[in-house]
Structure formats: structure tokens, C-alpha cells
């Protein structure tokens, strides 16, 4: 995979990818949490998905400050 250029266009594309990933992780986490009472693996999946979503959100916050200085 090619590295993304550090241009404004590249940063916006990366932000869009992170936002989509964050939304999918939250949806997966919600679904797994709904089954968490029935299955320990589902509870673990929910936690991992929510951690991923939180990491994406933190990365997006960091990138916003980088984009503001471009």
C-alpha cells in the first residue's frame, strides 16, 4: 500500500476513511453488546470494537489540529 500524501486532499481522504471505520466499529460494538449477556466472546468483541472506534476518534482529533495548521 502506498503511503498517503500529507496534502490537504490526502488528509481529508484519510479522515473520511477513519470516520467510516469508526462508525462501523461502533455499530459492530453495539450489536455484540446486545449479545454480551449470552456469550463471553460477544462481550469481548464489543469491547474491542469500542476501543477501535475510540482510537479512530482520537486519531481524527489529532489530525484536525494538523489540518488546521496546513
UniProtKB/TrEMBL annotation:
Q: What InterPro entries does UniProt report for this protein, alphabetically?
A: Csp_YhjQ
What highest taxon heads this organism's lineage? Answer: Bacteria
- The molecule here is called Ferredoxin
Organism whose genome encodes this protein? Frondihabitans cladoniiphilus
